[in-house]
Amino acid sequence: MDWGNVTAEDLIDALREVDWSSPPRPLSEFFSRFTVPRSSAKWNSRFKCNLYYYRTNYFILIVLIVGLGFLRRPVSILAAILTALSIAFLNDSFAGTFSEKVTRTVRQFSPHLAAKMRPPLTPVIRGRPSTKRIVHICGRPRWVFVFIFSSVSFILWYVSCGLLTVLWALAVALLAILLHASFRTPNLKARLNTFREEFRAVWRNYSEL
């Protein structure tokens, strides 16, 4: 895959649709080999490839750095968790898994309530959905949960006065990710993983026909 031809919008869509439940890459691989890119085109391709391949490692890195900044601010920790969840809900795989687990847990106590939490059925005409698929969480559109979690987290940030702290922590985390993704040489595993994701995308599009 030529990552140089991948636009930022395509990369964001791929990160939104990909399964984030995969375990992080080993530290021995994460800190294996670093080289300076020979051109801006090489840097552009390397940065996108590493950002996609090490996405779980980068997410954990952000959580750790932000968490260290909130050791003395418990309210800010709760605000950070809600903010992370509101962002994670934008990923289709995470939203579906979260909804399924919550519904399964509720079913053990109230099957009637769990039945109301099922996503609405999408009408199918001639073997294809009549409308664009909308991701639901616990029977409600995804944007409802994103809005609620984001609003509550914003209030908690304001109450705890920790917004400046999180901005500094995010700046440090993003700088670390920028440096790693820019100088980490993509290995064979990253390329094979890219080919596998491409095959899955093609197979998914074929199965929807």
Helix fraction, binned, reads 55-70%
Q: What is the gyration radius calculated from CA atoms?
A: 20 Å
Number of H- or I-type helical stretches: 10
How many beta-strand elements? 4
Runs in which pLDDT lies below 50 for 5 or more consecutive residues are: none
Order of helices and strands: HHHHHHHEEEEHHH
Instruction: Report strand order across the widest sheet.
Output: 1-2
The major β-sheet equals: 2 strands, antiparallel
- Report the sheet-strand fraction: under 5%
What is the structural class?
Answer: mainly alpha
GO biological process, one term: vesicle-mediated transport
InterPro entries: Prenylated_rab_accept_PRA1
Organism: Hibiscus trionum (Flower of an hour)
Main location: membrane
Structure notes:
The strands form 2 sheets. Strands 1-2 form a two-stranded antiparallel ribbon. The protein has a two-stranded antiparallel ribbon with strand order 3-4. The model has no long low-confidence stretch (mean pLDDT 77). The protein is mainly α and 209 residues long. Helix 3 packs across helix 9. The chain is globular, with a radius of gyration of 20 Å. The chain is built from 10 helices and 4 strands; from the N terminus they run H-H-H-H-H-H-H-E-E-E-E-H-H-H. InterPro entries: Prenylated_rab_accept_PRA1 (IPR004895). One of its GO terms (biological process) is vesicle-mediated transport. Belongs to the PRA1 family. It is found in: Endomembrane system; Membrane.
Q: Can you tag this structure with a few keywords?
A:
209 residues; mainly alpha; two-stranded antiparallel ribbon; two-stranded antiparallel sheet; 10 helices; globular
